[in-house]
Amino acid sequence: MSQQNRLGTGGRIDRSRPLRFSFNGQTLEGFAGDTLASALLANGVDVVGRSFKYSRPRGIVAAGAEEPNAIVQLGATEAGQVPNVRATQQALYGGLVAASTNGWPNVDRDLLGVIGSVGGRMMPPGFYYKTFMAPASLWPKYEKYIRKAAGLGRTPKEKDPDIYDHINRHCDVLVIGAGPAGLAAALAAGRSGARVIVCDEQDEMGGSLLDARELVDGRPASAWVASVLAELATLPEVLVLPRTTANGYHDHNFVTLHERRTEHLADLAPSINGRRQVRARMHRVRAGEVILATGTHERPLVFANNDVPGSMVAGAVSTYIRRYAVVPGRRLVLSTANDHAYRAALDWADAGREVVAIVDAREHPEGDLVNEARARNIRIIPGSAVIEANGKKRVTGAQVARIDIGGFKVAGRVETLSCDTIASSGGYSPVVHLAAHTGARPEWRDDILGFVPGKVPGMTPVGGVHGKSAIAEALADGAAAGVAAAQRTGFKVEAPALPKVAKVREGKAAALYQVPHVKPAMRAPKQFVDPQNDVTAAGIELATREGFESIEHVKRYTGMGFGTDQGKLGNINGMAIAARCLKQTIPQTGTTVFRPNYTPITFGAIAGRHCREFFDPRRFTALHAWHVEHGAKFEEVGQWMRPWYFPRGNETMHEAVQRECRAVREGVGILDASTLGKIEIQGKDAREFLNRIYTNAWTKLDVGKCRYGLMCKDDGMVMDDGVTACIGDNHFHMTTTTGGAAAVLDWMELWHQTEWPELEVYFNSVTDHWAAMAINGPNARKLLAELTDDIDLARDNFKFMDMREGTVAGVPARVYRISFTGELSYEINVQANHALHVWKALFEKGEKYGLTPYGTETMHVLRAEKGFIIVGQETDGSMTPEDLGMQWCVGYKKPFSWIGRRALTRPDTKREDRKQLVGLKPLDPQLVLDEGAQIVLEKEIRIPMPMVGHVTSSYYSPNLGHSFALAVVKGGSQRIGQTVYLPMADGRVHAAEVVSPVFLDAEGARQNV
Amino acid sequence: MLHIYCPHCAETREEEEFRPKGEAHIARPVEPEATSDEDWGNYLFFRKNPRGLHHELWYHAAGCRKFFNVTRDTVSYQIHETYKVGQKPSVTADKGAAK
Amino acid sequence: MSEIAQMDLNPRGAVKSESPLAMTRVNVVLAASARDAGVVVREKPFLGHLVLRGRAEDEAFRAGVERVLGLALPLALGPVARDEARGVSLQWMSPDEWLIVVPAGLEFDAEAALRRELTGHYAVMNTSGGQTVLELTGPKVRELLMKCTPYDVHPRAFPVGKGVSSVFAKSSAVIRRVDEERWELVIRRSFADYLYRWILDAAEEFGVFVAAGDASHSTSRAAVRELAAEAR
Amino acid sequence: MQHYSGFGLVKHALTYHENWQRAWRNPTPKKKYDIVIVGGGGHGLATAYYLAKEHGITNVAVVEKGWLGGGNTARNTTIVRSNYLWDEAAWLYEHAMKLWEGLSQDLNYNVMYSQRGVMNLGHTLQDMRDIHRRVNANRLNGIDGEVLDVKQIQEIVPIMDLSKNTRYPVMGASWQPRGGVARHDAVAWGFARGADALGVDMLQQTEVTGIRKNGNKVVGVETNRGFIAADTVGVVTAGNSGVLAKMAGFQLPIESHPLQALVSEPMKPILDTVVMSNKVHGYVSQSDKGDLVIGAGIDGYNGYGQRGSYATIEHTLQAIVEMFPIFSRVRMNRQWGGIVDTCPDACPIISATPVGGLFFNCGWGTGGFKATPGSGNVFAATLAAGKAHPLAAPFSIDRFISGKLIDEHGAAGVAH
Ligand SMILES: Cc1cc2nc3c(=O)[nH]c(=O)nc-3n(C[C@H](O)[C@H](O)[C@H](O)COP(=O)(O)OP(=O)(O)OC[C@H]3O[C@@H](n4cnc5c(N)ncnc54)[C@H](O)[C@@H]3O)c2cc1C
Ligand SMILES: NC(=O)c1ccc[n+]([C@@H]2O[C@H](COP(=O)([O-])OP(=O)(O)OC[C@H]3O[C@@H](n4cnc5c(N)ncnc54)[C@H](O)[C@@H]3O)[C@@H](O)[C@H]2O)c1
Ligand SMILES: Cc1cc2nc3c(=O)[nH]c(=O)nc-3n(C[C@H](O)[C@H](O)[C@H](O)COP(=O)(O)O)c2cc1C
Ligand SMILES: [Zn+2]
């Protein structure tokens, strides 16, 4: 086979650049400018796939986005695999490797096809729901087989090495589609100086002009296209995007354009000058005005065996001949209900091949094209249609009969015409998809026998999609819309002079969708409506008969429009058939909903660059490099990378944490606390604001003093906590949890801006500005003393919960004597740029005190020993301050009813048996309970059994010499001393005593030294 | 993808810059302690949730960090107006969406 | 006891400081050269950053700010007030918030001066340790920015001089257009690594070059003062 | 009712499928019914079915403004599981799970309930604590569940990226083997057919436009096809619950948000279970037809448009590619949105209302498909008795007044 269907001349392919490619293991040749589909047709490949349910051989039927059959697997390498490529939209490149997705052992000889033809009768729509129910135990096995038969292509086994990205664009006018209407619109709008984007999904701009028979200004239409593109290229504010599909139309004129940047070159994106190119780019366009110039999709006629390879839509035949110089057969029968499709027969004849007949459903076809066919002595059979195709893997003949459209019956004798190609045309459906994405329902127009877009604010349909199909009309429509859109976005322009295109006189089209057969649809050979999903006219008829009357039910019961072409080819036919069965009109039946995507788009392109390290930011403290250098393992907390523990040598985590814990209680340890949220608060009403937002009182906090605060939502549940320092009478430094920082700041702004704007207070995040280093342990004071000469560290001059300003290691610092470990502790805050200097200085002086860096795990153990909660670990949005035993932190007497106050007296919050925070001491002192273990009251386990709480934190403490845990337990404060049980997944049941949550130094002696 | 006019920045900006914060004009009872459990529950949780015109609170999180109100149709998603906190809407369900 | 605590956070002696990008700059290696780069990235570290809050409608407040900074307080989103010679800029962030950037080490002086001049309800907050400035120059910067922010960076929407704050990748940034092909980003310390890597990755196809800039240097208060004096 | 079976299929094939009966009738509304159910989604239809089957109340109408099962039932990602955290929720969803397990046989309609297991990934230490807590609670409530380590995950889902190089490396997962997916449309159709056979009237294209009261007692519903009387009215309208509540003169603690989902093109079988992640925020399963069914974030604003923001779709697919880098070249075929009725505590409302005889079943939000049979079952009992079924009692509207919320945000997690 060597391009036996290629014409010697013509077309828009580049014959000087032959390209080799492979299909199903066979090496073939095409030309630059081919699509994979045109190259396959040039080589006489008939069967490109097998259908989903019946495994019938399938060939190429269309030339664009509406192709349902030619869905192939692409890729020469594993990483370069591209599943489900539509051959009609894939440019050919050298070395392209493609294979059919279904068919076993291969598409040509498919064994499943046998089952399909025998068993097919047993697979009407909905057959799944009617069977495989008994016995219930067998369903998983059936399902396995059902699944095996599913799917088209396969996913690559390797990670995608390519990159994708997004670009945000704003324009005045976005023109979608670059046929005559779109180009005229773009030219008009572009000349105004407005920012214009014009995109087209095809490799070449021009749309229907690329295969038009009409002359434009006396020259081939493509010459006009070239001249327009040349002018657009000179307009600096116009962006022309070929190979770019508008795939989704969202609210407020936000349109996504998917640009295929390298898919026409290779499976894997090439590098240029060593720079990786993005495989596909999503243009996220916000447009002032959208001009929809997406043209029309031709409808094939629904006749028996209309899926046999060699059966195509008429326009595709023209496209292949005129654009690609490929005649997809030798002997053509055209079945049409309109004039426009006559082009296929004329083009066929022009190519020097035989037109067996034009079968026209209309009694009196009349028009310029009809006359031209007559003039060429092409046989025209009026009032008739092809009712059935002959052939299996290729059309061998067409059964033609006189039909009565209104009565939906065959009205005469059946004549069989020998042919290898049947082109059909039932009319043209405007491509309304994008407009429908916005929620606008399409509107039926009797004059064009099609749905046009519903109204979308800021959108104008032009050309074919607007029912203005003839080139001259489309040009005028587009130009006018371009002028108007420019004007609405503030630009002035004259309408461009339009080229002259002779008007082709056309007769009125007939409304024909399903062609009647001599047998009723249920008994006739299959008449396919949606070939990809094997949806037939009989299937639709059956669905309506079974009560699936809404078109949405028909869709869902039969699968119509579910495929990768989303019903572009078949939906309107299906709706017309449903309408006929239900004895209603097409507009009464309505359409199903078109949704994004217009054509399928890779996940990679939609994800863009936001993958792997860019999936989500990682936040680092100023000391991060030091932690890495010192072997830290990290825990991520709300995007922050926090040292989790610092193993030495071969230490396990447990060993490292035990060592770190001891170091803090016995010597001195240091924690990078920079991730804590920090909010600076200034203003004369700062205290009042704190009074309202925190549960406790702030009126009397002196300058230089710190206080712990709890924050609730107004439902009384704890949302965050932290220490806030009074650093000036009207000036506070608040800290929040690491994960809660942003939410707390927003929360404060919310209350301030919406409820209490009269309070004179301002907040700002200073989380990143300050680095915080917490030194903890008996030696902390001695260590700090070595690095400061201007802070009086004497116990009684710098007390627990005091703040002092001074210099540490030569760097101005605020030092807070606060403690999350219960030890003597100073939290040194310096401007973050200087943090590493101070940190290193501490280590220089700290060595002799055994200064040990510790991470969050040790911090957790140490705070738990003291019974300090962690919001998000001890709390889960259902704990009040009282549940946590933190009545001491609740200002019951504050005059303003602070956020959360009222809720504490709601009936449920008042209950005594609420879950309360307690400590647990396992009876086995070595046993570390599971965090998340559930607590029950009885030792004997029966399932189901009532649970009274769960373990929130659990550790082994080298300081206590035993394991311990924090837990929340129903009525827990009344249960101190009781033994509770913790049933484990492995059947073991642990026992623990309920104790106070404070395990160490309840009186606080250690931190008050 | 909404395109929202921020009355503080005086520009129409992309949805990604904003965060929706639910129904607008929900005032916290002035005397919570004197408020019945029922009224408190209503204030916390019960919402108009209209199908149609909705006055809602938005936050210009990545821009000026100001809260403001939006009158938006929850079916068409059309935004009829935006206005500052403390102001009253000029487009309401009773008055009809003038624009 | 003062109402507001002011504190000069610049070191007393010679101290090695590190900008938010110190770690990243060491770890991310780049191949491109300046010659064919579509984008050149340069950090302007250690500048003084202050957040100013106050009432724009208060004439005394406006006048006070102008006296101190020599720049009129911008009253709406739009051009950033700048004095290139003195290295001072003043940007509208919100109806009651402005971003002040001053030369390295001068933030305390600026704050002190503001506090001297201003009365009533206002706030000045130092964020110099929490932010850094990235300068982007080159013919492809605008296209790069389009990949990063949904904000419209076309000259018609974003003329020279303008500054806004918007979404940037999955974080946010203050974006300022200094010149036709010169832009500044003010970014937060903890996100700096992420944003920097992002920018280099997104700019790869244009050719990207990182210009020298000292991400870690020794500062002392005295040295900074001198520098600033020279600038004046 | 025509009995469905494999044998029947063969028989009908021989007669060219010309003798299949209607799955349900298309009746004219009667003047009065004992009970009117507003909303012909899965929950409403299940309610009708169980009313007829278990309570012998057959003078019932399901009033549906569009087509049966066209609301969220048509739009959900079909994940079924019962591993909820709090007792009240766990019991309710497990009640549903037990019904799922025999549903195809009970309805004589294959709802294709596929117990392929549901996995919920943990990526942080706190995720893992929550997973342990929930799985332990489930076990003690008699609900199957396990905690998996990374190796076990690898065995079940070998194609997932479990390396340390991902942005959020996987630390473990919870696993409910009895969970899975079902064919959503079939669930609606199976219940409708079953209810129809027992005498229930399915009134499609019938929109309730008002709720008529006598004093404080409901007497029927106004519709676009006229008034329909009933002393008991059960409202099961999901995203439109607020609209119905307004007709009845009260408000609900519910806001309706867009929730989106999407499918890929059909692919050869590659993923045998359901994988969800709260943290990276996405979830995916593969349908029997081969498409990857994917969902994730809910849009923050209220919306009745059945569509949401594109940014949400972007984030969802970023999450999917993060978990499954080999899906990068798979294509998204279609996306859509539903209107989900979210409650402040991510649990439903099954409750009497301030209006006598009027009951609401709503607030299922992002995750009520899995409850369909259970919800219908307890709501039917509630309507039949005029007071809450014990499993439904904790879900009364009063909890928002008393404060006794059942906070399932953790377990409900990523919207499903
Ligand atoms: C994208 C998405 C994904 C989801 N994924 C899952 C999942 O994986 N697992 C899961 O368990 N759940 C999931 N859910 C949630 C689940 O879909 C719903 O909770 C469930 O389907 C609700 O069923 P329903 O019968 O209550 O509501 P619906 O199916 O919405 O039915 C309500 C019906 O009421 C009708 N109605 C409304 N107003 C009127 C009126 N005035 N008069 C008459 N009729 C009216 C509507 O037309 C509709 O048919 C998902 C939801 C969405 C949107
Ligand atoms: N009597 C007639 O002359 C007659 C009759 C019937 C139909 N038509 C058709 O009417 C149309 C008139 O020209 P026109 O300018 O309206 O359409 P056109 O077909 O020439 O151009 C539409 C262009 O839009 C592109 N497109 C469609 N959807 C797209 C998307 N989502 N993203 C990007 N590109 C997209 C198409 O690939 C095509 O190139 C032609 O399609 C013609 O075949 C003509
Ligand atoms: C589980 C599930 C699987 C689906 N699979 C497909 C599919 O393979 N192809 C398709 O086109 N749509 C599929 N859909 C989407 C429907 O076509 C449709 O978008 C959805 O039911 C919402 O209805 P609407 O888009 O008409 O509003 C699927 C929907 C669900 C819930
Ligand atoms: Zn703003």
Report on this structure:
The complex is a heterotetramer of chains A (1009), B (99), C (232) and D (416). Chain A has 1009 residues and is an alpha+beta fold. Chain A folds into 7 domains: 14-150, 2Fe-2S iron-sulphur cluster binding domain, sarcosine oxidase, alpha subunit, N-terminal domain (Ubiquitin-like (UB roll), Roll), CATH 3.10.20; 163-269 and 277-293 and 430-488, FAD/NAD(P)-binding domain (3-Layer(bba) Sandwich), CATH 3.50.50.60; 298-426 and 509-518, FAD/NAD(P)-binding domain; 520-595, Arc Repressor Mutant, subunit A (Orthogonal Bundle), CATH 1.10.10; 624-675 and 769-862, 2-Layer Sandwich (Gyrase A, domain 2); 677-765, Aminomethyltransferase beta-barrel domains (Alpha-Beta Plaits, 2-Layer Sandwich), CATH 3.30.70.1400; 911-1009, Aminomethyltransferase beta-barrel domains (Elongation Factor Tu (Ef-tu), domain 3, Beta Barrel). Chain A has 24 helices and 52 strands. In chain A, the strands form 14 sheets. In chain A, strands 8, 9, 12, 13, 14, 17 and 30 form a 7-stranded mixed beta sheet that branches. In chain A, strands 43-44-45-42-36-46 form a 6-stranded mixed beta sheet. Chain A has a 6-stranded antiparallel beta sheet with strand order 48-49-50-47-52-51. Chain B has a domain at 3-27 and 50-92: Folate-binding superfamily (Folate-binding fold), CATH 3.30.2270.10. The relative contact order of chain B is 0.22. Chain C has 232 residues and is of the alpha+beta class. Chain C has one domain: Probable tRNA modification gtpase trme, domain 1 (Gyrase A, domain 2), CATH 3.30.1360.120. In chain C, helix 2 packs antiparallel against helix 3 (107-117). Chain D has helices spanning 6-14, 42-55, 87-100, 103-107, 125-140, 150-156, 184-197, 241-248, 310-323, 372-385, 399-402, 409-412; strands at residues 35-38, 60-63, 79-80, 118-122, 146-148, 172-176, 180-181, 201-203, 208-214, 217-223, 226-229, 232-235, 255-266, 274-277, 282-286, 291-298, 331-342, 349-352, 358-362. The longest helix of chain D is centred in the N-terminal third of the chain and has 16 residues, at 125-140. Chain D is globular and about 65 Å long. The model of chain D has no long low-confidence stretch (mean pLDDT 96). The chains are: A alpha+beta (1009), B mainly beta (99), C alpha+beta (232), D alpha/beta (416). Chains in contact: A-B, A-C, A-D, B-C, B-D. The interface between A and D is large, with 112 and 113 residues. Flavin mononucleotide sits between chains D (74-78, 184, 263, 287, 289, 291, 293, 306, 333-334, 336) and A (562, 566, 592-593, 595).
